[in-house]
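Quick one, probably user error.
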């Protein structure tokens, strides 16, 4: 028997370990299972290169709870350790590893949110146990070793008569951690961290009903057998070659990953690189819904099939965090803070790679099946538009496949749109005006007017599209986006043919104050225009610049303070309309005001601005007028 002191420089590391990241105590299980997995895969490797002359068998990891003894055991059939190796790996290396880890993170563990805590390793067992035993027998055949440590720097190491190869870690669960003796708790943790573990994990047994033999009579009771309860899938889809997978396999994996998600995904992207870093994974474009819970079913980060986190901030570019799926990389440094992670060269490359793969996939979907791509556009546009705004490299690729749907459900790329509209929609100053609507119903009248002129009207209704327009205008000189209700149609795209005004300048000067007297001037600016006599007499417009700045403010960005501007409108009065002539020539003030109010209300109505008392008055007045 040997006794000894673990080489301690921190007076007592165990209280420190116990305190470390209270909420993360549960990671001890992941650490010990990772060690058991390593021991098994290492042995497999040694066998494959002929260095270990043993049979692997169906090496699995077993987790056992003994409620009476208050122990939790993690048992593997991996390469095991000799007594010397226990001395070296557990007493020296693992210990100094844990010590170093704690030293490094004792100050910043709270504010930086260390992601994953790989590295604390074996000694994380002391977060939940007040005594830990290791019983291990090396594949090399020496006598088994039995190491015991009760949380003081003292340990004992003696021989043991364990027969089978491998390691058993016995945790004597501490009084304050008895939750880890509950089946439900352990099975929850196994599902969270290890459901795609590389080595099968057995947690208890389960009953399975055997299929009835062929031709069996109906009343035969099917036979039941007790089988190992294996909690993991050791070969998840992302570890396979894309060529070996069918669409259905991807759909099935989506369901496996998010059993509570009933919406199917739109398409997937299989990630697979081994240079200059290792990364595999599958990303899915989900169907985005209005009130989607962004915290649910997020992208999961794995390291060699062990779950690390579902917060991939810093690793996956922001705009792709709405995607679903898995990424797995041994190259992501997990023991560092997020700010450090963002600056890490390898991580930057990973983020760039993912962006590129997503862009390439979208581009090939667009090229190979445009119809299908158009059908999916509404579900994916927010992600793409967000990407175009936030990643210049993505913008350069996406501008070739980003779509701009019209109110008639035709989908143009930006280049196609410019080509299609350049003749009709270039104004006298050479500005190429792109017309759009945000709501087909609300802007119906304006859309009709624009259509009559033969213009194309886009339907742009995603929340950040105002920012995108701003960007497209900046990168395409002379291109201007204007919403159809920003002005009268003749003013939206000004051509040379000016319409002659029926009213003289004098008459206009009389008319303007008449109208101004009836409309609230804090909100409306009256503007007389000589327009087509068939166009509406009164028209309410929202200047493009103002509206867009307000919208951009609402979604973040735009010019400072513009969001607080009051609602401002233009009231465009068509001096060539018969009704306007009549207003001017009506002698009694009462009758004239009635005409002005009625026309003004109608204009408001077409912009959905007539509500409450104003609406009630309008209805009353309308009945009076027709009776
Ligand atoms: P790490 O896994 O990062 O090396 P750990 O503290 O988790 O650090 O483990 C330290 C060492 O102890 C391992 O590298 C390994 O050599 C040994 N070890 C731990 N658990 C086992 C096990 N189940 N079987 C064999 N060796 C083990
Ligand atoms: Mg380890």
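Nope, works fine. Designed sequence:
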């Amino acid at each position: 028997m040997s006794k000894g002191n673990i080489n301690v420089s921190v007076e007592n590391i165990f209280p420190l370990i116990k305190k470390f990241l209270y909420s993360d105590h549960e990671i001890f299980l992941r650490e010990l299972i990772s060690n058991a997995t390593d021991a098994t895969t290492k042995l497999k490797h040694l066998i494959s290169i002929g260095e270990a002359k043993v049979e692997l068998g169906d090496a699995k990891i077993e987790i056992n709870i003994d409620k009476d003894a208050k122990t939790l055991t993690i048992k593997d059939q991996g390469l095991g350790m000799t007594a010397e190796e226990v001395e070296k790996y557990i007493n020296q290396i693992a210990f100094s590893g844990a010590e170093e880890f704690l030293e490094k993170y004792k100050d910043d563990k709270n504010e930086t949110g260390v992601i994953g805590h790989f590295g604390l390793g074996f000694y994380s067992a002391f977060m939940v146990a007040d005594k830990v035993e290791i019983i291990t027998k090396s594949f090399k055949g020496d006598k088994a070793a039995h190491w015991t440590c009760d949380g003081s720097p003292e340990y004992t190491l003696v021989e043991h008569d364990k027969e089978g190869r491998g390691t058993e870690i016995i945790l004597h669960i501490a009084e304050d951690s008895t939750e880890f003796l509950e089946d439900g708790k352990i099975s929850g943790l196994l599902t969270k961290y290890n459901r795609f573990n590389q080595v099968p994990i057995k947690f208890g047994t389960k009953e399975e009903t055997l299929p009835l033999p062929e031709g069996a009579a109906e009343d035969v009771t099917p036979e039941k057998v007790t089988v190992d309860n294996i909690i993991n899938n050791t070969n998840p889809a992302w570890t396979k070659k894309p060529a070996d997978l069918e669409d259905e396999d991807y759909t099935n994996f989506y369901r496996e990953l998010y059993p509570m998600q009933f919406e199917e995904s739109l398409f997937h992207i299989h990630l697979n690189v081994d240079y200059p870093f290792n990364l595999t994974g599958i990303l899915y474009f989900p169907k985005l819904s209005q009130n989607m819970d962004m915290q649910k079913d997020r992208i999961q980060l794995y390291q060699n099939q062990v779950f690390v986190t579902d917060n991939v901030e810093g690793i996956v570019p922001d705009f792709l965090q709405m995607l679903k799926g898995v990424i797995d990389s041994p190259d992501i440094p997990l023991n560092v803070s997020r700010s450090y992670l963002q600056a890490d060269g390898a991580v930057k490359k990973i983020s760039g790679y993912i962006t590129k793969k997503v862009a390439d996939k979208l581009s090939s979907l667009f090229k190979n099946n445009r119809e299908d791509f158009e059908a999916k556009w509404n579900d994916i546009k927010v992600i793409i538009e967000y990407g175009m705004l936030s990643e210049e490299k993505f913008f350069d690729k996406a501008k070739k496949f980003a779509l701009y749907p019209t109110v008639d459900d035709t989908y143009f790329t930006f280049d196609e749109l410019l080509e299609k509209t350049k003749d009709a929609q270039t104004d006298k100053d050479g500005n190429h005006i792109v017309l759009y609507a945000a709501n087909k119903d609300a802007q119906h009248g304006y859309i009709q007017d624009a259509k009559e002129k033969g213009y194309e009207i886009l339907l742009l209704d995603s929340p950040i599209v105002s920012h995108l327009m701003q960007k497209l205008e900046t990168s395409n000189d002379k291109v201007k986006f204007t919403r159809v209700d920003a002005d009268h149609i003749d003013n939206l795209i000004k051509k040379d043919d000016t319409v002659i005004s029926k009213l003289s300048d004098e008459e206009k000067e009389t008319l303007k104050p008449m109208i101004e007297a009836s409309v609230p001037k804090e909100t409306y600016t009256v503007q007389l225009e000589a327009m087509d006599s068939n166009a509406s007499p009164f028209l309410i417009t929202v200047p493009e610049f103002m509206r867009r700045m307000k919208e951009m403010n609402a979604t973040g960005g735009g010019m400072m303070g513009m969001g607080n501007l009051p609602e401002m409108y233009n009231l465009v009065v068509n001096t060539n309309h018969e009704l306007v002539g009549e207003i001017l020539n009506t002698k009694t003030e009462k009758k004239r005001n009635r005409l002005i109010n009625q026309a003004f209300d109608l204009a408001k109505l077409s912009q959905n601005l007539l509500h409450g008392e104003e609406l009630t008055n309008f209805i009353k007045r309308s009945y009076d007028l027709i009776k």
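The longest helix spans residues 345-368.
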